[in-house]
Amino acid sequence: MPTARQLIAIGGSDAGISAALRARELDPATEVTVVVADNYPNFSICGIPYYVSGEVTHWSNLAHRTAADLAATGMRVLTDTTATRIDPSAHTLTVRDASGTEQVLSYDALVVGTGATSVRPPITGLDRLGAAEGVHLLHSMGDTFTVMDSLRDRDPKTAVIIGAGYIGLEMAEGLTMRGIQVTQIEALPEVLPTVDSELGALVHAELERNKVEVLTDTLVTAVTREPSGALTVTAARDGETLSRTVDFVLVVVGVKPDVALAANAGAELGVKGSIVVDEQMRTNLPDVFAAGDCVHTHHRLLGTTWLPLGTTAHKQGRVAGENALGGSARFAGSLGTQVVKIFDLVAARTGLKDGEAVAADRGWVPVSSTATPDDHKAYYPGATPITIRITGDQQSGVLLGAQLVGHRSAEVSKRVDTYATALFHGTTVDAFSELDLSYTPPLGSPWDATQVATQTWVREHHLDRHRTALRQH
Predict the structure, then answer these.
(1) pTM of the full predicted structure?
(2) What CATH homologous superfamily does 126-251 map to?
(3) How far apart are CA 75 and CA 59, in angstroms?
(4) Which end of the chain is more exposed for a tag (fewer CB within 10 A), N or C?
């Protein structure tokens, strides 16, 4: 690989830092500069709810690496510096620091890792209300400090969370742990819509068990500030209007790719407005790569989609950093493997649900089965059921996806990883039983819970094929 190159990474989160670290690792002679819009490079955005809850005691603990750690790699990190213009023909990047001073940086290769920004839904009054009134979005460290200031200054006793995806659910737990009475409002029929509704219902029940009021199939239409300073959230449900008056409102209804910088330079945009890249993370601009939440994702089962995940951003950034030096690494693709803890429950998924498999238009006939095996042998104290939903192709028997919900002690996150590994290698549901998985009574069973679930699927959807094969012999 060439040496003494000038590599610039835009963005101090997962993708940008991963690209910079990979470049420094492969060629210490490369001059690497990371441009970070705020003062918090390499911080865990995923850890924010646990700082809000108090489980992470200081915001600095959210740093994957300290500034000293990053400096020790030899990279230069420009904090509080905004990238304002990419000139692909001149191979220059214009940046502006906190004082407003601009400078032009030259690069041989550029990695764009600008991430995503919070979606602000079209709710009446939301555009006029902000942190000063106790209404917050949450996606960055800056958002986090504003939320914490509001919690300290307003000392809210009640809150509405608009949205019941991953961050919304984690924040429902975090605010509840602070002694705040939470109402969670979700427009879709069930919370955690990334899993099927029968599994989302288990999460719903866990929220209610912990005194969170949950309103599903409910569309927030307005947020208004009362003369007292309280906030009234108005919503529509089953043709009726309902309202909640609270001290604090959090809006977490999703994110969108932050692509303005790259788009203004001529980068091609694709799915949901994300930057188009190939498997080597190259854009259509010369020597410009992109990675993370701002780019579309190669999904091993779906093809091209947009699926913003921290794990994906790290992998894509690593590929971009290597190829920016002249390498030929390829992003192997995502399976959308995700996990979330809500109080004492853990929900996880990987691969596809039935509807997603149909929409993929790959000729699959998806069918699913649900099983509830114990996480370990029932005679050993503490056994707890895991609800596992397996999706496979009825014709070929290939595994297409898995969803799991169980107690936080049930190793749900590692069990979904087993399914993800099988999906990565195109395993059939039947062949999953051939995996040599560990066993001891306090932790598992001779047939692991993951295998009990796949065997249930085979009995319900593929057993006739085995019987036919036996008759033919």
Answers:
(1) 0.92
(2) FAD/NAD(P)-binding domain (3.50.50.60)
(3) 23
(4) C
